[in-house]
Amino acid sequence: MTYALALDIGGSHVTAAAVDLQQHRLLGDPVRRHLSHAEAATTLLDGWAQAALAACLPGGAPLRVGVAMPHPFDMELGVSHMTHKFLALLNVSVREELTRRWQGTPLAGLPLQFGNDADLFVLGEWWGGAAQGRARVMGITLGTGIGSGFVVDGRVVTDGPEVPPEGELNRVPYRDADAETALSSVALVREYQRLSGEECTVAEIAALAGQGDPRARQVFQSFGERLGEVLSPWVQRFQPETVVVGGNVSRAWELFIGPLQQGVSVPCVQTTLFETASLLGAAALGVREQVKEWSV
């Protein structure tokens, strides 16, 4: 069986999985290890390397390894530039360190590619999720922040007039701040607290909205409207066939899709892969000769 090994690096965990390159699906349950970004460099790198090995299938090595990493990270060199987390890895070559740890294992000498986690969410949905069959796909992830990605025929586009700088919507100006300030889970919690005087999680606000709480419903209505306002100009520029929405906030899909769709001229769809989308995207690195498009 031809498969790739995919790693998804998060601030509190690492997830690894074998991915069928023909069926575009995970082979078995992913391996998930809790590992804080604040750990020492050796602890982080050992944990990531061991999780990958634990996800390998018995009896055969994968064809390649793909890794979904947070930004900022030099995807070509495999060097971390993050200062908001993974501080112990600042300017460290993750590529060299993982390669060294995999010597003498089934992962030794395999092609190793890195991609931005938000980009790979969209690539995964294009390859094996809600956007299969679509040539041009725009995607966003909604959680503690907002992530975004733009895919054309399996290539991630990060530059040019059709997309925001580096393909990142979070820093796009919006009203008196930026898109992330208006569209994070923190914004939802803050708005509900302003209306009700109560501090609730996004999941709790969604539950209240489902029970008919008018303040909770208003919060998601406003959220969908703001999301549509942020996405609309970039939909017009990029001309995607569909917009895929993921992240934990997307689990409250029915509460904000109405106002969102009113503000966007192309179909918006909820992720079908959720947390596994970036794993599929990492496995899809290398499907094209050049998946990542760097414009100059």
Outline:
By secondary structure, this protein is of the alpha/beta class. The chain has helices spanning 41-55, 94-101, 117-128, 179-183, 185-196, 202-210, 214-238, 253-263, 277-284, and strands at residues 3-9, 13-20, 25-26, 31-34, 65-69, 73-74, 79-80, 112-116, 136-142, 146-152, 155-157, 173-174, 177-178, 242-246, 268-270, 292-293. Strands 1, 2, 3, 4, 5 and 8 form a 6-stranded mixed beta sheet that branches. A 6-stranded mixed beta sheet has the order 15-14-9-10-11-16, sandwiched between helices.
Describe this structure in words.
The protein has 296 residues and is an alpha/beta fold. It has two domains: 3-119 and 278-293, 2-Layer Sandwich (Nucleotidyltransferase, domain 5), CATH 3.30.420; 133-271, Nucleotidyltransferase, domain 5. The chain contains nine helices and 16 strands. The chain has helices at 41-55, 94-101, 117-128, 179-183, 185-196, 202-210, 214-238, 253-263, 277-284; strands at residues 3-9, 13-20, 25-26, 31-34, 65-69, 73-74, 79-80, 112-116, 136-142, 146-152, 155-157, 173-174, 177-178, 242-246, 268-270, 292-293. The strands form four sheets. Strands 1, 2, 3, 4, 5 and 8 form a six-stranded mixed sheet that branches. Strand 6 and strand 7 form a beta hairpin. Helix 3 (117-128) packs across helix 9 (277-284) and helix 7 (214-238) crosses helix 8 (253-263). The chain is globular, with a radius of gyration of 19 Å. InterPro entries: ATPase_NBD, ROK. Pfam families: ROK. It comes from Deinococcus sonorensis.
